[in-house]
Structure to design on (376 residues):
């Protein structure tokens, strides 16, 4: 009989919490033969990234995962062998009591946010004593063997490389989502938070040859609308100014969004999950990190840059760092796009190299399963 795993996820805002929890649940069920329940307080957010879902159901099954609406009116249920609270969401008190009452208590894990900071390695896997004789373990994803690694499904990199090596597959995918791409035009995906640097960035791009920017509907649309000077910018609209094409896409399914990252020459991503997927895409990218109070996010940004830029030439590394910092500090000093583009062959090679290095580490789902086995 398969082991039971429960994953609890509260959608704070945006799609990162649900995006990570859903990928993890799916992979645990598909690759580790586990009986996984995913408890979500917001099933509607799940249906945005997985449109086959039904927001009205309290229980539904997809890809081998039982998805339960985590209602504020908690109904008693049996507990699982492994319990994951994603991003420190608090478990229902009755559920914790049931965990404590079990003859063999479950493994209780708090899955933390991703960070490249060094302290993560010292904290990964540490227990913290809770009431009721229970322990909760901190589980950190990360970029080194001393962490839990990154979410990566089996065979992902090979599938991505095959897709990128197959021009027809790329064209077919793009046409399916309504994009006609021209060979001599760079394709850039844009998924980011509000950013006052956007107009200067777009102006810089206009000066740098043909670009086709693909923007799934989201928080950046109002800024794009005022840049373009139109009243409404919605999915399906294509806007052209000189060498610049801006195309708004509907918000894609998570699987299609992954393909979009594979299909583009350059990606702008944000948060946590799209940030990891951009790395698996093996293409140069800019990360718009989730802004935190007192600029705490900039420390996280630098920690990642320090790891990522290792192996880049001094010049390209400096350009790359400057570009990421400018984007994240929303500076209106223009990102020197011509220099980024000049460094693109090196950046592209480096992106693939980084992807190879990271994919040689254990993936997060596997690390969790191993952690449980060692704990038993
Ligand atoms: O939505 P986000 O900004 O999520 C953030 C971060 O996770 C952040 O760390 C967290 O603290 C905050 O939420 C609460 O960015 P992220 O993490 O990239 O998640 C977006 C998800 O949406 C990802 O799984 C990809 C998916 N997606 C689609 O399914 N379709 C789309 O068209 C797009 C653009 C994204």
């Amino acid at each position: 009989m398969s082991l039971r795993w429960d994953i609890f996820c509260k959608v704070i805002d945006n799609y990162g919490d649900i995006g990570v929890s859903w990928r993890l649940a799916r992979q645990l069920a598909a690759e580790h033969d586990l009986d996984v329940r995913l408890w979500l307080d917001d099933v509607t957010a799940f249906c945005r990234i997985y449109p086959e879902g039904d927001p009205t159901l309290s229980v539904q099954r997809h890809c081998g995962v039982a998805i339960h609406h985590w209602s504020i009116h908690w109904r008693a249920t049996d507990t699982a062998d492994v319990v994951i609270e994603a991003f420190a969401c608090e478990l229902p008190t009755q559920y914790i009591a049931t965990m404590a009452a079990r003859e063999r208590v479950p493994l209780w894990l708090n899955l933390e946010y991703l960070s490249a900071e060094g302290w993560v390695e010292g904290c990964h896997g540490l227990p913290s004593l809770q009431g009721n004789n229970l322990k909760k373990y901190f589980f950190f994803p990360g970029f080194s063997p001393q962490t839990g690694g990154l979410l990566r499904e089996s065979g992902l990199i090979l599938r991505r490389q095959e897709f990128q090596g197959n021009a027809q597959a790329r064209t077919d995918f793009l046409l399916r989502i309504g994009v006609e791409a021209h060979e001599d035009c760079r394709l850039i995906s844009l998924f980011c938070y509000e950013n006052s640097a956007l107009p200067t960035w777009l102006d810089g791009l206009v000066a740098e040859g043909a670009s086709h920017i693909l923007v799934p509907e989201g928080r950046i649309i109002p800024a794009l609308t005022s840049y373009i000077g139109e009243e409404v910018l919605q999915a399906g609209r294509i806007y052209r100014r000189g060498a610049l094409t801006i195309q708004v896409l509907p918000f894609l399914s998570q699987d299609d969004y992954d393909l979009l990252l594979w299909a583009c020459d350059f990606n702008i991503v944000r948060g946590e999950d799209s940030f990891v997927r951009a790395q698996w895409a093996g293409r140069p990218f800019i990360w718009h990190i989730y802004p935190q109070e007192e600029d705490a996010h900039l420390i996280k940004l630098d920690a990642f840059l320090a790891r990522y830029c290792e192996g880049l030439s001094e010049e390209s590394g400096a350009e790359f760092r400057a570009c990421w910092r400018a984007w994240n500090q929303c500076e209106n000093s223009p990102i020197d796009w011509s220099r980024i583009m000049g460094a693109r062959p090196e950046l592209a090679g480096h992106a693939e190299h980084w992807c190879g290095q990271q994919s040689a580490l254990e993936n997060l789902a596997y690390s969790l399963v191993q952690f449980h086995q060692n704990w038993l």
Observations:
- The CA atoms of residues 87 and 112 lie 5 Å apart.
